[in-house]
Protein: Glutathione S-transferase
Amino acid sequence: MGDEVKVFGFWGSPFSRRVELALLLKGVPYEYVEEDIFVVENKSPLLLQYNPVHKKVPVLLHNGKPIAESLVILEYIEETWKANPILPEDPYDKAMARFWAKFLDDKCLPAIRKAAFSPENEREEAAEEARACLKTLESALNGKRVMQEVTGEELLSVEKLPELFKWTEEFVSCSVVKQSLPPKDKVLGVVKARVAQTNAPK
Amino acid sequence: MGDEVKVFGFWGSPFSRRVELALLLKGVPYEYVEEDIFVVENKSPLLLQYNPVHKKVPVLLHNGKPIAESLVILEYIEETWKANPILPEDPYDKAMARFWAKFLDDKCLPAIRKAAFSPENEREEAAEEARACLKTLESALNGKRVMQEVTGEELLSVEKLPELFKWTEEFVSCSVVKQSLPPKDKVLGVVKARVAQTNAPK
Structure:
């Protein structure tokens, strides 16, 4: 087909990692372009051109056409490359997968981020919110274990959430997933720095 | 097929209206169940059972199986009833439609709601945000004209946003859309009451 596929991403972003993971699962070769998302001025002119609305990674570029928003990109990948389906075939099961993906992005990830990056005195309350989300979640999250290591707030444990724990254990031991995970110590470094900043005297 | 289709909705919710609109467009007969969403205790046990995560309308019940989240429901309707496609056929066009639907829900609607329901002294700033969203939007919004009538903040005008204005004019003059729009004076009453409440002395 001579497809030209590029991903504009950031090494530590679960959103760009999920796009890469989908392409890996489908066996679609792609070129990866790393973006410096921490400093606005460092974002490449191409990223701003391809995602002028949100100015964020990930962006998938397919034969010159850009798509933004990771869940939108996943749907596009699923429809464009049929091998190794990501979503279940049955429309109802598919709806459930979409519902949980949306729940993860809209509710869980913001709650977990808040639990990790709240000032110390607000952290327990935020962690409680995050725990409630995780209790509801029947799907999996990526990157949270690093956060609990840093903040000391245990969000995910085999005792409290056995099914979710098992799911993530299986998820991260899959060889394709392993390939797309960012190095743990690098993630840990960034998260620790951010937590320290949150708690620094103003 | 003997399909049993029910929609749990609220007359003034654009989210449940879009589900009804999709069913109308597809020609799928359904039973409508009105929920009182203003008072938590008035929500029906069925709604809580069918959408335990968000406890919100709309819920689509298809042959006893519940689906929540309006955009997830629309995808399900599109896949289940093939007549009169809602989404474009081309995968890239489809991705664009999904991108703008997500933008509408995640950015525009919250900004417009904020512009309508901010206390008077914060309203201009909130309206500015909403205007920026609408400028970006290439799709359409429903219900905003009522809000600008109440608050006096003009968000959508033929001079400032000619394409969007034209789109919404066409949208609301479509016969199926007309059928699914809530009565304007009823919407106006609810919005006015809420604006008054926002500005009432604490």
